[in-house]
Design a protein that fits this description.
Elements: H1 7-24, H2 26-38, E1 49-52, H3 59-67, E2 72-76, H4 79-88, E3 93-96, E4 109-115, H5 124-134, E5 135-147, H6 152-159, H7 173-182, E6 186-199, H8 202-211, H9 228-239, E7 247-259
Parallel strand pairs: 1-2, 1-4, 2-3, 4-5
Antiparallel strand pairs: 5-7, 6-7
Helix pairs in contact: 1-4, 1-8, 6-9
The structure holds S-adenosylmethionine.
S-adenosylmethionine binds near residues 54 and 214.
């Protein structure tokens, strides 16, 4: 499946959101903490770490502390995010990078960490191949990404309101698993979990997606302003999902911990 992603728009959208991101990215922070806690206890060699799709950079000091090294690099497609990260966490190195075409040497990193970032890429297989190339033998990858089913309430509500695409497409979890299985990596852990975040109002839900830069960047999006009538239909449809806890936004989170074999046959 080839996803319809416009990388320039992705970089711009996240860059514009950099200042507000951490205040609104509650689910991203929660998953990042979980990912750091399941990261291997120790890593090899020089302890060179890459946070791929680092965003505002808040994981860099956490990784640095866990592995007792300052040799941590943040890489991201968005210059706006990198500028923010550099100004808040100046101890670390930063590099503009596309996860599908990494500007790093072979065997350069002992740990590559990536939280909620590679779902914006066209081909997960290409991302994994690039990560594999840049990891040293024995190096490890700890990654979370989003799978199909993510924001399904929003997707269904918009489908009742108009014919445009408002929610990005995500690969089915089974396809992500197949890509991992077909790779050269050894699999230590691989799972998919549904995380649901609740909002009090439709505005709170849609605003929070906008504030983290994760709103619609598909080519099937509406190019003009959405009419009040369409917004009314959308709001009514989304309200039909309301539970006692509020309006749900579901995230299908695919997680894996993989290692590059020490001896490559
Ligand atoms: C939802 S944010 C996650 C940021 C951070 N990892 C976190 O845990 O909050 C997604 C980040 O991935 C970056 N990104 C999107 N596509 C990318 C790509 N192809 N290569 C590298 N970074 C990418 C975006 O610019 C953005 O900063």
């Amino acid at each position: 499946m080839s996803l319809n992603i416009e990388k320039q728009a992705v970089a711009q959208s996240f860059g514009d959101a950099a200042n507000d991101y951490d205040e609104y990215a509650l689910i991203q922070h929660k998953i990042a903490q979980g990912l750091i806690s399941i990261s291997p206890k120790t890593i090899n060699h020089s302890k060179a770490i890459l946070d791929l799709g680092c965003g505002t950079g808040y994981c860099l000091p956490l990784l640095s502390e866990k592995y007792q090294t300052q040799n941590v690099t943040g890489a991201d497609l968005s210059q706006g995010m990198l500028d923010y990260a550099q100004s808040h966490y100046p101890l670390f190195k930063y590099e503009m990078a596309d996860a599908e075409n990494l500007p790093f040497k072979d065997n350069q990193y002992d740990l590559i960490f990536s939280n909620f970032a590679v779902q914006w890429c066209d081909r997960f297989s290409q991302v994994l191949a690039e990560i594999y190339r840049c990891l040293a033998p024995g190096g490890q990858l700890v990654l979370s990404t989003l799978a199909d089913g993510t924001l399904q309430e929003l997707k269904q509500a918009w489908a009742q309101a108009d014919d445009y695409q408002h929610v990005n497409d995500f690969e089915p979890a089974s396809a992500l698993m197949n890509v991992v299985d077909a790779s050269e990596f050894d699999v230590a852990l691989m799972n998919t979990k549904t995380e649901v975040h609740y909002y009090s109002t439709v505005r709170a839900l849609t605003d929070s997606l906008k504030r983290i830069g994760a709103h619609n960047i598909t080519s099937g999006r509406a190019k003009a302003l959405t009419s009040p009538g369409t917004i009314k239909k959308f709001t009514k449809a989304l309200e039909s999902f309301r539970t006692e806890q509020g309006l749900p936004a579901s995230y299908e989170v695919f997680t894996c911990v993989l290692s590059k074999p020490k001896i490559i046959s």
